[in-house]
Specification:
Blueprint (H helix, E strand, L loop, with lengths): L2 H17 L26 E3 L6 E8 L7 H17 L17 H14 L3 E4 L19 H15 L3 E4 L38 H17 L6 E3 L9 H16 L5 E3 L13 E6 L7 E5 L19 H8 L8 H8 L3 E6 H5 L5 H17 L3 E3 L2 H13 L1 E5 L2 E6 L3 E9 L9 E3 L7 E2 L1 E2 L11 E4 L3 E8 L2 E6 L2
Parallel strand pairs: 2-3, 2-9, 2-10, 3-4, 5-6, 6-8, 16-17
Antiparallel strand pairs: 1-13, 7-8, 11-12, 12-19, 13-18, 14-15, 14-19, 17-18
The structure holds zinc ion (ZN).
The site of zinc ion (ZN) has 6 residues, from loops.
């Protein structure tokens, strides 16, 4: 089954509930924050814009790992678990004939194209993919050297531009953390699958321990993570505990300053795709608690997740961005100025070696870069999460032409619009710390386009400026 259908289902169900005026507080998870938590004071005359004034764009890859083709190995387990409830026809695909491996040569080819085009994003590494083997111990069917090489490729070649996320432990069966074996069947004969159900009634600590187990395996092979991805409905229906548990897990295993996660698809036009900063607590302290939910603005529109039936290229590309750059979900979201993350599954990108979806992807990326150039900024999910944490949680105080900032996390490219900067001579200066000297910022005559850090420009009755904002207190003087 396509885990993304589950995500969309979850979202639509939540909205249907709201529309009908029903109060369903916990059973139906909402795509937007269950609990945003604390927010600081931000003066109305100062607005935080996009990073460097550019729209963030990112590519999210689910169901990737080392070597193992999750399409081939997950299918029989999904079919066994869900044929009776969801209908056997959904699983009637020739998975036996599909390749067992997605080779490193494809990772290289894909990664090389992305480097040339500046693409950044998120790449899952499922630590115990479909129960085939453990990436930190042994992968039956492959030599230890092949596993080592594959991990090295992820670490050295992919990681600079891609966040690594676990997608829970196996992405199929729920694992007993004490024994490392899949849980036995439920009394009714059905299976505990990571995609849904297991989290119901579990505490934040229990869910956190499960996520921490997955993260620890990635830590064992030197793949640091700042976020995680839920396999489909993992976490339903215990969303608050998923988020709190996930935050705890990322903090305890990797000491992550800005934890984030990917779970939601927000593909209806008119709905905001802004990342959500959730459960913010103690934002005045040195180590505030929060987690950032970064959604995708598309489903996997390349075809069925397993790569067995790629959709026609024209259809796939045009759903994202048309040849004239005028239509498509990416166009819609970018024109709105909101982060545009799009999505596929790694078996789908590979499409059993046919190359079809990789070609569609290349067309989409080239169209995006051609249509928007430096109006967009390719970012990793962790970079987007960090920016949104700073945007939401920085206290902004203004008194005349003095602006005081207190940021619980720092971020590069923090871009502000400041209204009514006064009638006198404007020459913004920035002091990056409480004891720092004010340094002159550089005026640019470019009225549009990106701003570099340290630059500012005039607007009609406002100015825009861009700084690398540090964690803690900093200050601006406009004249
Ligand atoms: Zn997945």
């Amino acid at each position: 089954m396509n885990p993304i259908n589950r995500r969309t289902f979850v979202k639509n169900t939540a909205l249907a509930g709201v529309g009908a005026g029903l109060v369903i507080p916990r059973l139906y998870p909402a795509p937007n924050p269950v609990v945003p938590g604390e927010r600081p004071k931000q003066t109305k005359s100062v607005t935080v814009l996009n990073p460097h004034g550019q729209v963030p764009v990112s590519f999210i890859i689910d169901d990737s790992t080392t070597l193992v083709n999750m399409g081939h190995y997950c299918l029989p387990q999904f079919a066994e678990a869900w044929s009776s409830s969801k209908g056997p026809e959904r699983f009637d695909v020739p998975w036996q004939s599909w390749p067992k491996e997605i080779p490193d040569s494809f990772v290289l080819e894909f990664g090389q194209f992305c480097r040339e085009q500046g693409v950044k994003g998120k790449y899952s590494i499922v630590p115990y993919p479909a129960c085939v083997g453990w990436i930190d111990r042994v992968m039956p069917g492959w030599s230890p050297a092949a596993l080592r090489d594959s991990l090295k490729l992820v670490r050295e070649f992919m990681m600079p531009n891609w966040d690594i996320h676990p997608e829970m432990i196996s992405h199929t069966r729920v694992i007993d953390l004490k024994t490392g074996r899949p849980l036995p069947r439920k009394p009714d004969g059905s299976y505990w699958m990571e995609n849904g159900g297991w989290c119901e009634g579990k505490s934040a600590d229990e869910i956190g321990a499960y996520i921490a187990y997955a993260l620890q395996i990635l830590k064992n092979v030197d793949l640091p993570c700042e976020g995680f991805t839920t396999p489909g409905g993992f976490g339903n229906p215990a969303m608050e505990n998923l988020e709190i548990g996930g935050m705890q897990a990322l903090r305890s295993v990797f000491n992550v300053e800005v934890p984030h996660y990917f779970k939601y698809v927000i593909s209806d036009s008119g709905e905001s795709t802004q990342p959500q900063v959730e459960f913010a607590k103690r934002i005045d302290s040195d180590s505030p608690d929060f987690i950032v939910n970064v959604p995708s603005c598309t489903g996997d529109w390349f075809g069925a997740w397993h790569g067995g039936n790629p959709d026609p290229m024209d259809q796939v590309t045009d759903l994202h961005i048309t040849t004239d750059f005028k239509k498509g979900r990416m166009v819609e979201v970018i024109e709105k100025g909101e982060p545009a993350c799009f999505l596929t599954h790694w078996p789908n990108m590979y499409a059993n070696g046919t190359g079809q979806n990789f070609k569609s992807f290349q067309v989409i990326v080239k169209r995006l870069n051609k249509a928007y150039g430096n109006r967009i900024r390719w970012m990793k999910l962790s970079e987007i999460a960090r920016y949104w944490a700073a945007k939401e949680l920085t206290a902004i105080e203004r008194s005349g032409n003095s602006v005081k900032l207190k940021a619980p996390v720092g971020t590069p490219g923090f871009t502000l619009k400041i209204d009514s900067p006064g009638n006198g001579e404007i020459a913004p200066r920035f002091a990056p710390g409480p004891a720092s000297k004010f340094g002159q910022m550089k005026e640019t005559k470019q009225t549009t386009g990106p701003l570099s850090s340290g630059e500012w420009r005039r607007g009609e009755s406002s100015i825009e400026l861009c700084i690398d904002i540090p964690k803690g207190t900093s200050a601006l003087r406009l004249s």
